[in-house]
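[SOLVED] Need 3D model of a two-part complex

Original post:
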Amino acid sequence: MDDEIRTFADGRPSAPPYEPQARARARERLLAEARGGRRLRLPRLGWQTAAAFGVTVVLVGGVAVALSGQGGTEIRPATSVVLSGGELNPRPDQFILVESDTMYGSHSVDASGGQTRYLYRQHRKIWKSVDGSKDGLLLTEGQEPRPWPGEPLPADAKSWRGSEWNQLASCPDLRGPYRDDYAFLSTLPTDATAMRDRLYQPVPKGKDVNADAAAFTRAGDLVRENYLPKPQRDALFEAVKTIPGVEAAEGVADSSGRVGVALGRVADWGVREELIFDPAAHTFLGERQVAVDAKAGAPKDSVLALTAQLDVSVVDALPDAPDAGADASCTPETQAPTPIPSESGSTTAELPAAEATITFTPEPTSAFAVESTSEPETGPTGTPEPTVTRTVTPTPGS
Amino acid sequence: MVSVEDTTETLDDSTLIGHSMGDPERFAALFDRHADEIHRYAARRLGAELADDVTGEVFLVAFRGRGRYDRTLPDARPWLYGIATKVVSQHRRAERRRTAAMARVGADRPGTFDERSADRVTAEQLQPRLARALTRLSASERDLLLLVAWADLTYEDAARALGVPVGTVRSRLHRLRVKVRRALGGIDPFAAEEPQHG
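Solution:
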């Protein structure tokens, strides 16, 4: 920085401190939003990209592909059918349906700044347009959570019952290199070296980014809740093995008990993140996270995430889900600011209205109070069946 | 056993945001980390009152859009500044007024400029002459200039915040310097302070 810019830097006006009360209010509002969004966390966030986040969120995958074609009205038992030569060959107008069981860490901050954590579990079904041209759907059903290793189950872990439908907005153009629809995945390199290069693209832009960590994460994002054609699967498997820090371990089981090869890498938060693959078919079975040092905040060798991608199939149409939560993730980032809910008596409401050109388009927060009409259908005994809460009846396409 | 706080502190922003996808409340850690800085930036541009609202808004927008965060970037500041810039731009009229007011101060007090060696920057007061120069810039030029000059972003980070290539940032800054120099009257008002300046 120099010359004219330096002039401005030197002449910057002083800034008053952030008043603790105003700061606390803003933080509380954020937390209220976060808590309110718990039920609809996916709709608001754009859940697809959530998948791109791997770490905590999402799911996992695995394998087992049953070419079930146009969905019958029956729910297929979640038996895993290991790919035996039966590769999927979906048409562009169809949907890939991936079914998984997942367990990931949930970390919450309560109003007083205290934090609680536990392992939350879900059974998930995700439908994604083969060519990305249509919106998808996600069904999540809560399953009984487990305590964080070495700790009691916190009170906020108790409300896990119920299921949710969420729309998944599709916007391949916006997602660019982060696309994960089948049409895109099938254009990925079939050669391990070229695939490896892709894992390192786009080049991370941050200063302190560990490119290898980013590449490993990207690999997980490609296989989790997705279906890769065999040539890409093979290339990816070989490519991941070459990422510095990655080690292979045989005989690692996913959450459904299927055993495969785990390609793992220790992340900077003290956890070994593993992607488990079928040794021969290289289908993605699931993922696991294991504490390796104190940074993980859990006893060494305890499991902090474990999933299984149970089934992958092709269907012609989405099931009927009229009350699915909306997904705003494809709307342009320059969204109109949403009004800050001003608590009565709050001084923050005293915004000099004359000067604010903000167009407060009141976001219908009530619209998000999508009380899930689906009653938890799990028995009162708390033993959720890993079955779908609603009958999935794909309406056959034309 | 290590406390969660320790764990959270060691995580980079990207990982925290990743965690917040499944556990929304974790996003509060990002607020704890960066709210003061964003507030300072907002306060410089808009004044204290609006800064409170803008800061709250920035984190709500960030929270809702966290699914789009490029998690290859461990430092979320450029992203937050980008959002802050957009939110600030909703208050353009307020900013213009504020800048105009600061420019007027100087017109009324011709001596101000020479007081710089003592305490150039008095509370809440931008150098009137700089304020006048600011009024000559387009909104996007002002956004860029102030991200670099007031928020201390590197060119790379500013590019990231504004969603443009870094080359664009450089060329814009070049044009901007010329414009500012002209607005300042063709001379560098602080040249005397910087012997090396040439």
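Edit: Confidence is low (pLDDT under 50) at residues 37-85, 333-398 of chain A.
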